[in-house]
Every structure is written in structure tokens, then in C-alpha cells.
Amino acid sequence: MMWHHRLSRWDVKSAPYLYIAPFFILFALVGLFPLLYTGWVALNKWSLITGNQGFIGFGNFSYVLDQPRFWDAVVNTFSIFLLSSVPQMIIAIAIASVLDANLRAKTFWRMGVLVPFVVAPVAVSLVFGQLFADQSGVINAILTNIGLDPIGWHSERFWSHIAIASMVNFRWTGYNTLIFLAAMQAIPRDVIEAAVVDGASRWRTFFHVTVPLLRPTIIFVVITSTIGGLQIFDEPRMYDNFGLGGPDREWMTVTMYLYELGWGSQRNLGRSAAAAWLLFLIIVLFAVVNYAITQRISTTEGRPAKTRKVVAR
Amino acid sequence: MRSSLIRGAATAAGLALVLAGCSTSTPNPGASTAPSDEKVTLTVATFNEFGYDDLYAEYTASHPNVTIVPKKAATSNEARENYFSKLAAGSGLSDIEAIEVDWMPDVMQTADKLMDLSGDDVAGRWLDWKAKAATTPDGKLVAFGTDIGPEGVCYRSDLFKKAGLPTDREEVAKALGTTWDDYFNLGKQFVAKSGGVAWFDGADAIMQGQINQLPNAFSSSDTEEVLIPLDQNQPVKDMYNSILKASIDDKLSANLQQWQPDWTNAFQKGKFATMLCPGWMLGVIEGNAKGVEGWDIANAFPGGGGNWGGSYLTVPAQGAHQAAARELAAWLTAPEQQIKAFKAKGTFPSQAEALSSPDLLGVKNAFFNDAPTGQILADRAKAVTIVPFKGPQYFAVRGVLSDAINRVDITKKQTAADSWAQAVKEFEALG
Predict the structure, then answer these.
(1) Is residue B228 part of a domain?
(2) Pick from A34, A242, A258: CB nearest B14
(3) How far is A259 from chain B (nearest CA, A)?
(4) Domain of A105, in residue numbers
(5) Chain B residues inside the 8 Å CB shell of A41
(6) Which of A105, B263, B276, B383 fits a disulfide with B209 by CB distance 3.0 to 4.6 angstroms?
(7) What is the pLDDT of residue A300?
């Protein structure tokens, strides 16, 4: 009996871990191991074609940090990330609140916003390639028709970022809209009705009731889009047909830079791995900042009195 | 998901590295001649379109013991990544692997991982320069040539007429002269009267044509790559300056980058009058310029012959059926078969004998004003004399030059001198 008893206690204690183990085993294989192995590669002179050429310590890191191109890439990455994530978030919340209202054919509209997300990135880039072509693009044709100067979408750094950000937004706004919509529907209707009964305008209700209650979701979306945004690759790579980021690397992001080092002209996996680790560290830094902000916001949220006061006002 | 591409690449690389770590050099069991009636299954990996589909059936009909499993990659880049990661890993490649000339620097560097294909049956089969590019310094032939891209000059006869230039393709060939200066000078005459139409599409396209005429563009030795520092590479610097002078100062360039949407759309708008065009480009022009009348091709190329592109078949030494694979590869690349592939998909033959085949010489192209493209391209193939040496860093340096040219010609953000100075720095960063 003792044995059986002990076994069932062991079962109770360990079963949860066993159930989640497959995920962690898989993560160790395809997440942790490549991460550590990349770290090892970064410490060696490592060619894509001929393999490991010997240990060189932090040589690859100092090479990458010395390259103006790396810092250009960091700036480009943040610029594209901010230009895409900030408007995307605002537009997504706005669309979600419209979809949250009583519409005819709700499901149609709700599914409709997700359509761009389903379109293959390659197709998106083909369409946007025609829109943003410098000499023959649709947008420049419109601009010249209304008497404005055409924009150098592929020659001006800032405008290339705007164009890429619009591709990113096209794909991801609908996705985030649905997440926000789900969160909005989880907001108890009586809270909003109470605000309306108290005479709060629609704007006021939206900004002072809906948005504060969306905070956890906003944080979630910010974190996921930070991780995704800093690793942005597909859209800028397909912004032209060469995938290098322009003749002066006007729109080369960090992931494109590490791809160029490893698989492009140099075929130097060591340097590429070093750039990958630097990107990893940047993202970790951001995650820490995010965490700090999250902590702050969640404590604000822990004070329901404030929310009630706002509603009551 | 946004990063799925890079993550996929990273995972693939991780696997490649793991596999590379534990690869062992196994002796080649297949190197011994196998009895010809033994049942074998051969995998053949190609990319894009080699025109082999019907040939496989024909081969298996005459060799009932052979089963062919074709693998077709969508792009040569995809095939390239697969090729080199599995070559390094020591297993996983097909029995026959197609390669593109752009990979040759890496292929030749890893030639010891490929079967030596030389033999009396294939001696003298290819144009000298085609075979020479696949021969190691110690005389091993590691790849059988399939197709090539001999270059002529495509031109718009209607635009030529408007600008008062000859329109007949033989007169145009004469007017184009023999040197790049001749080509640029005719261009100056043209743009003086063309009313805004440029002479060629873009400066880098001209660089592509010229650089392949240098036997050794970036290295001081042609057995092993010894890079010449870019700031001391006078021939390349002169080439760079003369092309940009013609493009910008003389306004010969339409400032278009090949393969970009602007370039593709420019065919419809008739923004330029000539283009350096390898055989495979004819189809590209026809597709882009659909409905435009006036394209023709002249049997001429500035600065001597030129070749752009082409492919080979290799037999990796890791394969289990090398003898059978070599037999199939030799058959596929024989002149008769290559002619059939040419008829099916337009891959222009690299085999000397195929160039005098009536099947090839009789080919005319309706879109190019019924030009005898078979005859013209065969002549252009014979005009090629130089096999440029391309070491492991060749394409890295070429990329630096492309960027430098495009900063002046396409984005117009820098002067030729500033852009060159930046290219010198980028060249140094490659080391």
C-alpha cells in the first residue's frame, strides 16, 4: 500500500511536468540548441562552404560592431518597426471598435479584415512593387497627376521605410484587429452601459473605459509585435528583386544583414552568427524594458477604484 | 510568422552545421563500373527549366533497368542552398545535380567532392571555354556543360529609324562597331535625336557585359584567388568610370535596374533602344514587351564575344550509383539531346557540334522580326574567347561594384567618385 500510495503521489506531482515536457524537449531541440550552437559558431571563423576554420574568440563580434552597415541596419530595423507598429496598433484598435458595434453581416466584415493576412507575402510584395515603383508606380503616377513631385521610394531611405511599413501594416493590421476585437467582446457590457447611462460620450467611453480595459491585450500585442518587428525580414527582403536592401542598404534590416553575411556575398557564418546574437541581445534588452512597463501598467490596473472614478465622473 | 523565412534559414543552417560536423569521408562504392543491366534508381536535381522531361522517358525506354526520379527546384538559389549544405554534409544529394555558372567559384573550390567525369566519349564535346570553366587546374572535368547564354545586341528598329540610324540587322551590326566606345558613340548619336529615349537600360547591365570580358577581373592569379585591392584595380576603375560617364554625362542610360518593376514596365513604354541580350533574354524581352513592335537582334557584341549564364550537370562523389549517373549525364548533355531540350525550352546548347545542327540554325524568332536567332546566337557563342576566372570572392566584389554603380545610376544619390570611395571601403570590409 505504501508503494502504491507513493506512486500516486509521485504521479500527482510529476504528471503536469510530463504533460508539458514535449514542448520543452522540442524547444530544447529546435530553439535552445540552435541558439547555443549559433553562439559557438559566432566564436569561430566559420565559412558556409568550407566549415569551421578555427576559434577566434570575439573577433566576429568586433567585426560586426565595427561595420557602419550593422548600425545602419539597426537604425533601419527600429525605424521600420516604429513606422509599422505604432500606426498598426492605432488602426487595429479603431477598426476593432467599429467591428465591435452592431453591424449587419458581422462575420463577413470580421473575416474580411483577416484576408490580407492570408495573402502570401510574395503576392503582397508583387502588388506593392507595382504601387511603389519609382518611375512607373501607381502612387507616383497619382502624385504627379495632382501636381506633386514623385517620391523616390527606392532611393530615399525614409520613404523606403514608409513603403515597407505599409506592406507590414497591410498584412498585420487585420490580425491584430481580431485580437483587439476578441478582447473588446470580453469587456462586460454593463460597464460600458453604466458609462453611457452616466452621460459619457462615445469618445469618452472609448478612451476612458474600453482602452484601459484593453491594457493587457495591448501589452500582449506590443510584445509580440516587438519581437516580430525587430526580426522583420520578408517584407524588406522582397521590397526589390535583389533582397539586399538597396544599393546603399537604405532598407536593410538586421536579419537581412546577417543573411547577407552568412549566405550572401561573404558566406561567413561566423560573422552572421555574431550578428544574430547581437540581435538576440537587443531583443532581450527590449523584452526587459517591456517587462518593466508591463509591471507598472499592471499595478495601475490593480487599482479598480481609479477606473470606477473615471466611469462615475 | 513575420520571421518565418529567416528562422527557417537559420534552422536549415543549424542542421547543415550539425551534419557537417559529423560527416565522414566514405569511399565511393559507385566509382567502380556497375554492370549496365543492374536495376538502379537515379535522382536528377535541376532547377527552373532544363527541358529534360521528355528526355527522361526516352532514356528509360532504352535503358529499362534505370528509373529516373526528377527533382525540380523552383529557383537556382533554392537549389544552390540545398547543393552546398548537402555537399558539405556528405550525404543527401541527388545522383546528378545541376549547377549554374554563378556557383562555379564554389563548385571548383569543392571539386574533390565531385566525380571526375572526363573520358574519351566526351572529349571535345563542348565549346572550349565552356569545358575549361569546369576543369580543375590538375585536369579533372567535374561538370558536363548543358546550356550557355551567348550575348548579342537587341534593339528597337522603330526607335532607330526615328533617330535616323540604320534599321536592318546587318547594317546595325556594322554600325555598332567592335568596341565599347563604338557602342557608346552610336548611342550618343541616337540620344541626340531620340527625344528622351535612352540608349541602354542601365549602367550595371553594361558592367555585366564588360566585366565578363576581363579574363581576371579581381584577382592577380588565375589558379588561386589573390584579390587585387579595389583602389589599385585600374582596369576595373577605368571601366567603372567610362560606363558611368556614358550613362550619366552622355545620358545613355535609362537609369533602370534589371528585374525591377520599373525595368519590366519600361519595355511597354519604350524607354531605351538597345539591350545586351543573352539567348535566354529573348524570351524575357518578348514577355515584357508584349504587343510592342520593332524589337530585333544584331549579330554583334561590343568588345568581342560575351556569355551570360548557363548551367552544368555534376555527379557528386557521395552518390551510390556514380557510373550509371555519369552515363545518364553524358547522354543528357550529348548534342542530340541538348538540341531537343533547346526545342522544348530554349536552353541554348553549349556543345560545339550542336551549334552547326540544322535544327538549331534554322530557328527564327517571330517576335524579333523573324531574326535567325539560331544562327546569330551560334555565331555569338563562337565569338566568345575568354573564360573569366571567378574565385570564391568574385561575386562579393561584383556585388560591391553593382551597388556602387547603382548608387550613381539608379538612386542618383552619389557622384561616381564618392560612390567609388565607398565601394573601396566596402571592399575592405569583405576581408
Answers:
(1) yes
(2) A34
(3) 8
(4) 60-312
(5) 17
(6) B276
(7) 55
* B172 touches B205 (CB < 8 A): no
CATH number at residue B423: 3.40.190.10
pLDDT above 80 for B53: yes
Q: Are B279 and B150 in contact (CB under 8 A)?
A: yes
Torsion of CA B156, B158, B162, B167, to 10 degrees: 80
**Same domain as B334, residue B413:** no
* Cβ separation B88–A51 shorter than 8 A: yes
pLDDT at B260 over 50: yes
Residues contacting residue B45 through CB under 8 Å, at least 6 positions apart: B70, B71, B72, B73, B79, B82, B83, B93, B94, B96, B97, B98
* A41 inside 8 A of chain B by CB: yes
Look at residue B212 and tell me whether its pLDDT is greater than 60. yes
Q: What is the ipTM of this complex?
A: 0.82
CB environment B23-61: b (16+ within 10 A), e (fewer): beeeeeebeeebeeeeebebbbbbbbebbbeebbeebee
Query: Which residues on chain A are in Cβ contact (under 8 Å) with B10?
Result: 34, 38, 276
Residues B204 and B87 in one domain: no
Residues A169-198 pLDDT 10s: 999 999 999 999 999 999 998 988 899 899
Chain B residue numbers with beta carbons less than 8 Å from the beta carbon of A154 are 260, 410-411
In this predicted model, what pLDDT tens digit does every residue of A229-259 receive, in sequence order? Answer: 999 999 999 998 888 899 999 999 999 999 9
- pLDDT at residue number B31: 41
CA B266 to chain centre: 23
Question: Does the residue B12 lie in any domain?
Answer: no
User: Which strand (E) or helix (H) includes residue B345?
Assistant: helix B335-345
Q: What is the DSSP string of B76-91?
A: HHHHHHHHHHHHHHTS
Say which residue the cell 452601459 belongs to: A193
Q: Are residues B266 and B176 in the same domain?
A: yes
A219, A81: one domain: yes
- Considering the domain architecture, whether residues B313 and B296 belong to the same structural domain is answered as no
Same domain, B137 and B155: no
Give residue-wise pLDDT tens across range A110-138.
889 989 988 888 888 889 989 999 998 99
- B51 within 8 A of B100, measured Cβ to Cβ: no
Look at residue A153 and give its three-state secondary structure: coil
CB B153 within 8 A of CB B280: no
On whether any CB of chain B is under 8 Å from the CB of A254, the answer is no
Q: Which A residues in the span 223-252 are in contact with B, Cβ-Cβ below 8 Å?
A: 228-229, 231-235, 237, 240-242, 244, 246-248, 250
Range of the domain at B140: 25-149+309-361
For B107, counting Cβ atoms within 10 Å of its Cβ (0-12 exposed, 13-18 middle, 19+ buried), the class is buried
Rounded-to-integer distance, Cα B184 and Cα A182, Å: 64
Residue B294 C-beta-side C-alpha neighbours within 13 Å: 19
Q: List chain B residues with CB under 8 Å of A267.
A: 106, 392
User: In whole angstroms, what is the distance from residue A287 CA to residue A230 CA?
Assistant: 11
Based on the fold, state whether residues B303 and B184 are members of the same structural domain.
Answer: yes
Number of domains present in the structure of chain B: 2
Comparing CA positions, the residue from B270, B267, B305 lying closest to residue B286 is B267
User: Maximum distance among all alpha carbons in chain A?
Assistant: 90
- Asked if pLDDT for residue B24 goes beyond 70, the answer is no
Nearest chain A CA: its distance from B259 CA (Å)? 7
